[in-house]
Amino acid sequence: MPSLVKDRRRLNRPVLVGAVLAAWVLIWIPTRGLDTLGLSPADLTPLHHWLNDVNDTVGANRNSSPFFLYFVNEIRAAVDSFVTFLQDLIAQPSYGRPVPVLGWLGVVAVVAYLSWAFAGWKPAVLAAAGFVFFGLQGLWEESMDTLALTLGAVVISLLIGIPLGIWAGLSDRFHRLVTPVLDFMQTMPTFVYLAPLTLLFLIGPASATIATLIYAMPPAIRLTAHGIRSVPRSAVEATESLGATGWQKLTGVLLPLSKRTIVLGVNQTIMAALSMVTIAALIDAPGLGKTVIKALQTLDVGTAFNAGLAIVVMAVVLDRVTTAAGDRARRTGRPSRFRRPLLAVFAVAAGVCCYLSYTYFWAAEFPDDVSIGSDLSKGADAVARWAQEDLSTATEALKNAVTYALLNPLEALLVQSPWWLVGAVAVLLAVLLGGVRAAITTAVCVALLIGAGLWQDSMTTLAMTIVATVMVMLLGVLFGVWMGRNRLADRIVRPVLDAGQTMPAFVYLVPFLALFSATRFTAIVAAVVFAAPVAIKIVADGVRAIPAATAEAATAAGSSAWQMITKVQLPMARSSLTLAANQGLIYVLSMVVVGGLVGAGALGYDVVAGFSQGQLYGKGLAAGAAIVVLGIMLDRIARASSPSKGSNHP
Amino acid sequence: MTTETVISVRDLWKVFGHKAELVPRSDELKALSRRELIERTGCTAAVREVSFDVAPGEVFVVMGLSGSGKSTLVRCLTRLVEPTAGQVVFEGEDILGAGKRRLRELRRHKFSMVFQNFGLLPYRQVIDNVAYGLEIRGATKTQRLRRAREVIELVGLEGYEHSFPDQLSGGMQQRVGLARALAVDPDVLYFDEPFSALDPLIRRDMQNEVIRLHREVGKTMVFITHDLSEALRLGDRILIMRDGRQVQCGTGDELVGAPADDYVRDFVRDVPRASVLTLRWVMREPRPDDVLDGPELGPDVIVRDAVRTVLAADRPVKVVRDGTLLGVVTAEEILTVVTDVEAAA
Predict the structure, then answer these.
(1) A466, A581: one domain
(2) Where, if anywhere, are coiled coils annotated (chain B) (predicted)?
């Protein structure tokens, strides 16, 4: 009876996992508080001191070591001059003038013109309106700083990323080499790129741009390679058979036919860059991010809301314009015969606007007297106050329920257990869920966390991550199943989720700061909202992908809706559920860390503090590494436990 | 066949896999079947020891089922796939020895190819697709547009110059592919299953188109197909492949009349024999009691065309070439073929 044996083995796994967890709790009761490896916020381990020393040594040798003189400093200088040039152009007073070269009128005109030329009428109107809105908010200069940094990083990312992508598209060997690196880079939270870079490039716009371009380059490489690889074989062969040179093949077939995918890569690069530029405010990048962070740190909801709104508007404008440009790249067809003359006419008009904004003060500096920024701030403040005062019963109840029922017990279990107990449990779970290889990875990760000297902070962060992931999965299953079963729901909800995914991570903190003030719970809710879209979409796609015949057969057998969901749709979408959990986990982790800004403490706080206080630098660096290790550990366990495709169909 | 040949292929091998070049060199490995070779070495032999000649102006068809290696073979002839071993002599030059630059020259001027999936560039109008080969070899814009218009007219696409490929039907798209191949005025046209993706009716149209073009421009053509009736319609000679090896090479009536083995016999079983076989294949030795003053016919007359004469005659019809009596045909032989009773080989 082979099938029975198989069933028993299957049943065993959850039972064993449950047994391990139960044993953990039992051992926890007597050993609570032993060997917890606690470290107070100001305490340092020898490793942290050593890292501080490294930082000091690097600082001392910055202008003498050849590695810095001829390599690092050169890069920094080149990037810096490029970004400064962009800032001079649109953001900062420059060349002895009280205003930038291009004033608001010029920038709006150029943006509208480019949006129209590449994307069409509607995106152009949206872009112009969005940019005028920055001025009205009283955030023109900050917005332009953010835009200049984003553009700088995007331009460099594309200059490096697209050729690398072409290379990866043409060469199998390079593709195999680069794919795991890109996978790894994309699972990293935005945060962890910052710390090591400051070691090399100091803080400021240059290192912010470098961090941004490293973060934003992978989608450009990946999608360019993907586009080139998916050009139909027949078109390539036809070109080769006509005797095309390699260059003719590239420019005549490969690039034109992958244009749409490459534009999609440009879109993702821009969105990633914007997201990172705002967070790079932590290492002193100018712009909207800085305004938000300052406001978050002083719990000034109104100002944070105003600047956060500007970030959202910029994200929407950049996303819509590049998406529309991508849609246009797909269309074949002759342009209308008015296009050429219109291009010229509008170019002249934009040129005139640029000249006006260069020459006249009214067109250069956005007028103050029409500002609605302070009204927006005050409005947001009022709403926040109302929410905190009048909604407090509801929000407090929710907050307390999650905190006392889920977060505190879990945190107590993780944080107060001896390190060896947690480590043993983690390795055992990895063995049960993933096998020996996952267990080895986990053991190494546990050792590294201890080595980083941040065991307790890591456990606190882990507790928050687990709670948030559980909530993400609840939402994912709830909405995912709903959307998977109901086309109308899918059509309505999906655009909202898509829009949510384009937002830079930390604008999510603002509204929840208003609702829940600065606590761990705020970070958790922000993380849940940040991570839920991706989980929901994956679950919905999984449910939808179930063959219609299977669902029909179940209906014909007389299943109720509930039976259908629990007996057919969820079991069959199991691999999607694991994937959703895995992705959700990574998203949550990156947001929980950002939550260090609003009182979530732990690793995120260590990183932030490391940027601002010299003596905590080493600890911040170690905390960044600990986040990476935590991410790898969770990712490996989740990935290893996901069922292979075959085991779905017994 | 002492006349000059355009393409001469000798012992051509294409093996895919690790250390593939060792396979054709080893007599032991060469003798293995495909499956045995995969088990022994992990290599797949797509083309094995193929040799043939193509004469100028000839339509040479390579036929086989999918996986028989025919598409790989035609790609080896143009080195879109790099052959593992052997010789491909094109107009006296072994193109396997040609350098990159020389190969490009050959592709630009000497041969061009029509593909199963058309391989058109979707973002270019028909006329620019047709002119693409000329553009690649550096023709000026006026030159290439003039030439493109000529061939567009030749394949019957006037009026569609400025359409985009996705606005055309499959048959018309393949006309564009055909025009693109013709535009560079090559000596040889290679067709890789060009009509397999088309509906049967359109396929017939396009076959007629190829026959017409062949009459008008007289190009040498190498045509790959899996469809026997297409092969018989178009081909002056047909090469049948199976598992990478050539099984038989000959004219249509040779294949039907004298299949080399059971595989070919199986293949040609459903062919209407009367419209393929010639009298050569059905005639018999004159017997002493035959009256030999009946009408005369040549040995290359197709059975179908001889039916009326033979049935009308009250005595055996003589099959004669240059005054020599080769054999006789009576109603019995003709009816055997026409009623499709398989001739005992």
Answers:
(1) yes
(2) none
Tell me which CATH code domain B54-271 carries. Answer: 3.40.50.300
CA dist A507 and A485 (Å) reads: 31
- End position of a domain, from candidates A360, A383, A406: A383
Domain range for A7 is: 2-47+391-648
B117 touches chain A (CB under 8 A): yes
Contacts with A253 from chain B: Cβ below 8 Å? 121
In the A/B pair of chains, how many CB contacts fall below 8 A?
75
Which of A364, A383, A402 delimits the end of a domain?
Answer: A383
pLDDT of residue A92: 84
H or E stretch including A22? helix A2-31
Per-residue pLDDT reduced to its tens digit, A574-596? 888 888 888 888 888 888 777 87
Gyration radius of chain B's alpha carbons: 23
Please report whether residue A59 resides in a domain. Answer: no
Report the C-alpha gap between B174 and B177 in whole angstroms: 5
- A180: exposed, middle or buried (C-beta count within 10 Å: 0-12, 13-18, 19+)? exposed
Tally Cβ neighbours within 10 Å of residue B40: 12
Are B116 and A237 in contact (CB < 8 Å)?
no
Residue indicated by tokens 């990946």: A222
Residue A641 in any domain: the answer is: yes
In 3D, which of A221, A78, A85 has the Cα closest to residue A151?
Answer: A85
Nearest CA in chain A to B182: A242
- DSSP, collapsed to helix, strand or coil, labels residue B225 as strand
How far does CA B341 lie from the centroid of its chain? 28
Can you say how many angstroms the Cα of residue B18 is from the centroid of all Cα atoms in its chain? 31
Question: What are the chain A neighbours of B105 within 8 Å (beta carbons)?
Answer: 243
Residue A212, CB-side half-sphere exposure with 13 Å CA sphere: 40
Q: Is residue B103 within 8 angstroms of chain A, CB to CB?
A: yes
Interchain contact, B108 vs A239, CB within 8 Å? no
10-residue mean pLDDT series, chain B (345 residues): 76 89 83 85 89 92 89 91 91 89 90 88 89 89 92 90 89 91 91 88 88 89 91 91 90 86 85 82 83 83 84 85 85 80 46
Model ipTM? 0.77
Are the beta carbons of B104 and A239 separated by less than 8 Å? no
Cα distance between the two ends of chain B: 27
- For chain A, the domain total comes to 2
Note the pTM of the prediction, 2 decimals. 0.80
- Is the Cβ of B137 closer than 8 Å to some Cβ of chain A? yes
Q: Do B132 and A239 touch (CB under 8 A)?
A: yes
Residue B114 phi/psi, 5-degree rounding, is -115, 135
Q: How far is A111 from chain B (nearest CA, A)?
A: 27
Helix axes B303-312, B331-338, angle to 10 degrees: 140
Residues A230-268: pLDDT tens digits? 998 888 989 988 888 889 999 989 998 898 889 888 988
Which residues between 162 and 191 in chain B have a beta carbon less than 8 angstroms from any beta carbon of chain A?
162, 164, 166, 177, 180, 184, 190
Given a contact cutoff of 8 angstroms between Cβ atoms, the answer to whether A58 and A123 are in contact is no
> Which single residue is written with the structure tokens 């008009």?
A349
Sheet holding B44-54, edge to edge: B44-54, B7-16, B85-90, B93-94
A528, part of any domain: yes
CATH architecture label of B274-338: Alpha-Beta Complex (3.90)
Which residue in the set B75, B119, B125 is minimally distant from A234, CB to CB? B119
Quote the tokens at residue B47: 């083309």
Same domain, A367 and A477: no
Has residue A58 been placed in a domain? no
B110 touches chain A (CB under 8 A): no
Contact state of B164 with A333 under an 8 Å Cβ cutoff: yes
Contact A332/B122, CB-based, under 8 Å?
yes
pLDDT computed for residue A220 by the predictor: 92
Whose tokens are 């902070």? That residue is A457
